[in-house]
Specification:
Helix 10 links the parallel strand 10 and strand 11. It is built from eleven helices and twelve strands. It starts with 7 loop residues before the first helix and ends with a strand. The chain is about 45% helix and about 20% strand. Helix 4 crosses helix 5 and helix 7 packs parallel to helix 8. By secondary structure, the chain is of the alpha/beta class.
C-alpha cells in the first residue's frame, strides 16, 4: 500500500508550521502600515514559461490565514503558462493578502520549477515504458510540496520516507555483509514485525544483479551508475522476475538512452534538488 501523504491533515500541518516560522507574534509591517478593514485585490503574475504547480496549495494557505479571502483561479495546477499570464486573483483584507504572500510564492515558485523540470524530462522518454521517479533528496520539511509538484509535472512518487518501503542501498548491503545477508535479514525482520513492505535492492554490477535474483524476495532491483551497455544486460537478465530502476547522476543528456534499455523506472534526485524556480510574483491591483 502506497503511503498517502496528500491528506488534509498533512497539508494543514505543513502550512501551520510554515506560517508559525514566518509570522510568530504578527506581521508587523502590514499591521503597522495598513488600516484594519482595508480591502484590495492582488494578482499572481507569471514571469517565466513553464508548468504551474502550487495553486491548490495557495488556496490552502490563503484560507489558513483568512477564511474570508476570495480566490479567482485563472490557471490550474499542471497547466502550461507563459510569461505575463495571470495565475489567480485574490480579493479581501489587504493585510491578510500580504501575510499570505511569501508562503504562497515560496510554494508556487519552487513547485512550478519542479513540475516544469519533471514535465520536460518525462516528455523526453514518452516513447518508452519507463516512468520518472523522484527521490528522498528533498528540502527538509518541504518534502510534501516537492513530491506533490513531481506528480503535477507528470512524474511518479517513490517512497515518501524511510518507513514506507525497504530500500537496501550499497551501505546497507556492505554493512550487513553483502546482498544475500542484507535481504535475508530484511525478510526475517519484516515477517517478525508483520510488515508488508516492498523490498528494493541497489546493485552496482552484473554480479550483484545475479546475487539479488538468487536470494529472491526482491520487488525492485536498482541499477546504480551502470553503463548503458551493462544496464541493458541487467534488464535482459532480470526479465519479468522483478521490476528495475535506473539511478545515479541521470541528466537530460543520458535519460533517453537509459529509458531505451527497458528499465521500468528512472529515479532522478535532481528533480527536487537542482531545479530552477519559476519567477512568479503577487502584485496589488491598483
Amino acid at each position: 500500500m502506497t503511503y498517502q501523504y496528500l491528506t488534509e491533515e498533512n497539508i494543514h500541518q505543513f502550512i501551520k508550521i510554515a506560517l508559525e516560522e514566518d509570522i510568530r507574534d504578527g506581521d508587523h509591517s502590514s499591521l503597522a502600515s495598513i488600516p484594519k478593514g482595508t480591502l484590495n485585490t492582488a494578482q499572481l503574475i507569471i514571469k517565466d514559461d513553464g508548468i504551474l504547480a502550487g495553486v491548490k496549495m495557495a488556496e490552502y494557505v490563503f484560507n489558513a490565514v483568512d477564511k474570508d479571502l476570495k480566490l479567482e483561479i485563472l490557471k490550474k495546477d499542471g497547466e502550461s503558462v507563459k510569461k505575463d499570464d495571470i495565475g489567480l486573483k485574490v480579493h479581501g483584507e489587504a493585510s491578510s493578502i500580504l501575510t499570505s504572500e511569501r508562503l504562497v510564492l515560496n510554494c508556487l515558485q519552487r513547485m512550478s520549477g519542479i513540475a516544469t523540470y519533471t514535465h520536460n524530462l518525462s516528455k523526453m522518454i514518452t516513447h518508452t515504458s519507463a516512468k520518472l521517479l523522484d527521490t528522498r533528496k528533498t528540502t527538509p520539511n518541504f518534502r510534501l510540496a516537492e513530491k506533490w509538484a513531481v506528480e503535477i509535472g507528470g512524474g511518479k512518487n517513490h517512497r515518501f520516507g524511510l518507513f514506507d518501503m525497504v530500500m537496501l542501498k550499497d551501505n546497507h548491503n556492505d554493512f550487513a555483509g553483502g546482498i544475500t545477508a542484507s535481504v535475508t535479514a530484511t525478510k526475517k525482520y519484516l515477517k517478525e514485525k508483520n510488515l508488508d513492505l516492498r523490498i528494493e535492492v541497489e546493485t552496482r554490477n552484473l554480479e550483484e544483479v545475479k546475487e539479488a535474483l538468487e536470494v529472491g524476495g526482491v520487488d525492485v532491483i536498482m541499477l546504480d551508475n551502470m553503463s548503458v551497455v551493462d544496464m541493458k544486460k541487467a534488464v535482459d537478465l532480470i526479465g519479468d522476475k522483478c521490476q528495475t530502476e535506473a539511478s545515479g547522476g541521470i541528466t537530460e543528456s543520458t535519460i533517453v538512452k537509459i529509458a531505451e534499455t527497458g528499465v521500468n523506472f528512472i529515479s532522478v534526485g535532481a528533480l527536487t534538488h537542482s531545479y530552477k524556480s519559476l519567477d512568479i510574483s503577487l502584485k496589488a491591483v491598483s
